[in-house]
Amino acid sequence: MFSIAICDDQRGICSEIENIILEYKKSTLQEMQIEVFYSAEKLGIYMEHEHNFDLIFLDIEMKGLNGLDLGRKIREEMDNQVTQIVYVSGKESYFKDLFEVRPMHFLSKPVEPDKVIKDVELAMKLANRLGGIFSYKKGSDTHKFPIKNIIYFQSVNREIKIVTTTGEELFYGKLQEVFRQVSKYRFITIHKSYIINYEQVANFKYEEVLMSNSDCLPISQLKRKEVRGLQMKYESERFL
């Protein structure tokens, strides 16, 4: 799921950008989620509660907290270097102030549909190149984890346990659906109850695997040949 936030105190601008993206969404297979905010404060509070976005279209001039200050907060206080920011403004005098926030692009008002679409497409490419984000629903909230920080997934009854470098979480889901989302990032199904991140493996053995957090997980008999083949494939790719 590729998530986008649009933040501008002019509701008309928000609607315009949202409609451009919704129209583009009809022509792509990429799943997208769009959230709209009319103040930087509300977007900042939302992100502080672990709601991250892949891309933010952010107005610069807003009452109260402005877009530049929110950008600094995202990069410095939240230490979020992954979310792409596209600044939107009717003035071009802010260029010098943008460097420390490292935005992906700057759009002048009135916005041009083709430029909005190009920014969405570029942000999607960057999201994949930077390792990607795993997202899941818990109640009405969408939670996200950087792929590189996930150690493994475990199926526990009707829930999925996600084990990361910072802790554990449970959510309702199916392991097959999880695998469809993460398979392109070198995740391996080693057992009907486990999917592991190859990059978080400390040691492979024939019947089990030791993960970076010292958890020892079983490799089922049916999966041993496949796992061994993928291990050899990924190791050989390191030298290409």
Structural write-up:
There is one protein chain. By secondary structure, this protein is of the alpha/beta class. It folds into two domains: 2-129, 3-Layer(aba) Sandwich (Rossmann fold); 140-237, OB fold (Dihydrolipoamide Acetyltransferase, E2P). Helix content is 32%, strand content 32%. It is built from seven helices and 15 strands. The strands form four sheets. Strands 2-1-3-4-5 form a five-stranded parallel sheet. A five-stranded antiparallel sheet has the order 10-9-8-12-11. Helix 2 packs parallel to helix 3 (67-77). It starts with a strand and ends with a helix.
Indicate the CATH architecture of the largest domain.
3-Layer(aba) Sandwich
Strand arrangement, major sheet: 2-1-3-4-5
Structural class: alpha/beta
Question: What's the SSE pattern?
Answer: EHEHEHEHEHEEEEEHEEEEEH
Q: Name the CATH class of the largest domain.
A: Alpha Beta
Extended strand count: 15
Count the domains. 2
In angstroms, what is the radius of gyration?
20 Å
The largest sheet, given as strand count, sense and whether it forms a barrel, is: 5 strands, parallel
- Approximately how much helix is present in the residues? 25-40%
Query: Could you tell me the mean pLDDT?
Result: 89
Strand content: 25-35%
How many separate helices?
7
**Which fold name is given in CATH as the topology of the largest domain?**
Rossmann fold
- What's the name of the CATH homologous superfamily of the largest domain? Response regulator
State the separation between the terminal residues, measured CA to CA: 30 Å
Low-confidence spans? none
Overall 3D shape: elongated
